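Notes from the 1:1 (GR / supervisor)

We went over the backlog. Supervisor wanted to see one worked example end to end before approving the batch request, so GR pasted a single chain during the call. The sequence is below; no edits were made to it. Supervisor asked that the structure be written out right there so they could see what the output format looks like.
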Amino acid sequence: MVKVIKKEKFITETLGGRPCELQLHIYKRLPFDCGCGKEHKFDPYVEPLGIGTMKVLRELPILKLVILNKECGYVTLVKIKGIFSYRLESIFSCKD
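Structure output shown during the call:
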């Protein structure tokens, strides 16, 4: 289970970054642990189509993403691992 921290600490630990520039479709459906206690499958929100349940708020150095899950209301920092096959490793999470 991923560590759940306070919102203020989450914000200070994930400062900086940039809008996501990664091709997110290759990570779609990869599982990751969420602060709500469940395992979710990554489902990125695509604009302007309006599909997907998760919004990538920003991309941090060394392949890290801040993901907001609209369904449960948790924000999770995940690290993308792997070269030929990918996985998402949850670092910590907080309630939005």
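Supervisor's comment: The chain is about 5% helix and 40% strand.
Batch request approved.
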